[in-house]
Amino acid sequence: MRGEVRVVGAERPGGLELRTAGLAARGLPEVRVTGLPPYLGQGWARVLGAVAARVAAAGPVLPVLVEMADGVELRLVPEKDGTLAVVPPPPQPPDVAQWRRDVVARLFPEAAS
Known about the structure:
The chain is of the alpha+beta class. The chain has one domain. About 25% of the residues lie in helices and about 30% in strands. It is built from 2 helices and 6 strands; from the N terminus they run βββαβββα. The chain has helices spanning about 40-60, 95-105, and strands at about 5-10, 15-20, 30-35, 65-70, 70-80, 85.
């Protein structure tokens, strides 16, 4: 990936919002996640960085499902603002907050210690 893609965050009433900055310069949509509890911010910043690398590598043919590791899959959903929201793959888990914690724990097990 040429150039820099950063992950930036802001606190919102519904939780932390993280988004990439730099994919649009390549003609690609930025990636974002909303409603995170602050303690997941660092882990999900790493997740978004990895997703951004995969989106950039895919070029103009964007993936709908992104396999991050064995058994860890994310879905990218186009939003009205042109970004891609990172959400759980189907079927929707009953507890999205737990899914988000599990993604970080499975991708970055060292973060749990």
